[in-house]
Amino acid sequence: MFIDSYIVGLMRKEFFDPLNARKTLLVFCCALSCVLFVQYIFRLLSQIKKLPPGPWGVPIFGYLTFIGHEKHTQYMKLAKKYGALFSAKLGAQLTGPLWKDQRRFLHEKLRNFGMTVLGNKKHLMENRIMTEVTELLVTLSSVENKSTDLSRYLSVSVSNVICNIIMSVRFSIEDPKFKRFNWLIEEGMRLFGEIHTIDYIPQIQYLPGNINAKNKIAKNREEMFDFYREIIEEHKRTFNNNNIRDIVDAYLAEIEKAQAEGRDGELFEGKDHEIQMMQVIADLFSAGMETIKTTLLWLNVFMLRHPDAMQRVQDELDQVVGRNRLPKIEDVPYLPITETTILEVMRISSIVPLATTHSPKSDVVINGYTIPAGSYVVPLINSVHMDPNLWDKPEQFNPSRFLDAEGKVHKPDYFIPFGVGRRRCLGDVLARMELFLFFSSIMHTFTIELPEDEPMPGLKGIIGVTISPQAFRVNLRPRPLHTELANMHTMAVC
Ligand code: HEM
């Protein structure tokens, strides 16, 4: 109302005196800017008042300059200071329908390949994983009683599980393609970590260091895509709609169906089908490989540091599974000590300390605070897992905290290694199967010991996309074997 009447007055004066009118216009613009600025400040202040408490930071960058490399540790300090729900100005981004379509599609296909806890199909996945577990045990038995770095053996076995599901490919440990592939992924994760601030302030992507990193990422991505392209071409040559072998085949079938129905222009929002497919393959591979390998490494670190806990797992396996076979998924309900050991290592290591960035589409009110539409919401997994109000002595390794009074496994709602809500981990079922089968089989076949002159691995992790343990070595002492395991060892000796 005030501004409208101001404009009317100005128009009249300008009509009679053109020289003065310019000055008046200038004054008007200044006054209008002041009014708008004051309005903006009022709106901002009232918005800030409704936000959860948090640090102010500095203009433009907000709190970003204070976060540093150890984001999760810094956020944990803020959570201690400001409470479970706090805000820090960093930026904003929204997700779109393409993600939803891809997630729905992948979820359904992964279930078809056995990523399910129910029905007959669960054995499909178990069989795929056990092929790799057995192969790993055979390889490890050739290095038993020698100081060994488990990381490279686990890398290839875990990669083979996910590669098999995605594109029916297996690698051998010495395969130069596999080594290069692994190197590209590791470098990609390191480079992404280096330039993560671009997500919040896109303008800084043009700084020389960031341009270099972005160019390297693009070059590496192209090299990986060349490999995927070859795989897709091979799948196209051998495609049979009645025998869908893996995720690549499932995508090819979907594209063929969309073409037949005349809606291929709509598929993946009309984006290039092959590029979409390759991106999904790349994402699934990196999400499904690094996480499992890292958790298995932490399991070994904790077993080295707590031989009594390892002994309890082995005693339980001997009693329930016996010495004639390897553990199976159907044994899980009878192996609470083994299961809670895995859960406790997942809690205490929180290998994915921050979940992905979520973003509400409209304003959301929580505990009286308003989270504005489009703001970043980052669940702090490790803060929740280390909260002394939720866990008794959270710094201590104690698998029995997951056991109830009757000795049954109990997972509280605030145990969230796979995140929460609609963006919860897509691979949680596969992850739980893999962790159980790999860990229990290694424990059943070997005792993990620290080689002479090797330091005990510490708990301070290396920060990348996941938090992984520092390099360490183990001695694998074989455990007395019968039938199935004995045959496996004979194979290794041959
Ligand atoms: C110990 C193993 C794993 C852990 C701790 C883990 C953890 C997580 C977490 C915390 C998220 C983000 C969830 C959120 O933002 O709320 C996530 C997302 C995701 N994970 Fe996992 N994950 C594991 C294994 C796997 C495996 C084996 C796969 C392969 C199929 C996988 C595929 C994915 C995908 C595709 C997403 C993105 C989901 C989306 O954005 O909709 N993860 N994971």
UniProtKB/TrEMBL annotation:
Residues spanning the membrane:
25-42
Q: Name one GO molecular function term.
A: oxidoreductase activity, acting on paired donors, with incorporation or reduction of molecular oxygen, reduced flavin or flavoprotein as one donor, and incorporation of one atom of oxygen
Name the domain of life. Eukaryota
Record's Pfam families? p450
Q: Which GO terms describe its biological process?
A: organic acid metabolic process; xenobiotic metabolic process
Gene3D superfamilies xref list: Cytochrome P450
State any GO CC term: cytoplasm
Named cofactor requirement(s): heme
Q: InterPro entries, alphabetically?
A: Cyt_P450 (IPR001128), Cyt_P450_CS (IPR017972), Cyt_P450_E_grp-I (IPR002401), Cyt_P450_sf (IPR036396), Cytochrome_P450_fam2 (IPR050182)
User: Binding residues for heme, per the UniProt record?
Assistant: C425
User: What keyword terms does UniProt attach to this protein?
Assistant: Heme, Iron, Membrane, Metal-binding, Monooxygenase, Oxidoreductase, Transmembrane, Transmembrane helix
Q: Which family does it belong to?
A: Belongs to the cytochrome P450 family.
This protein is called what?
Cytochrome P450
This chain's source organism reads Anopheles maculatus
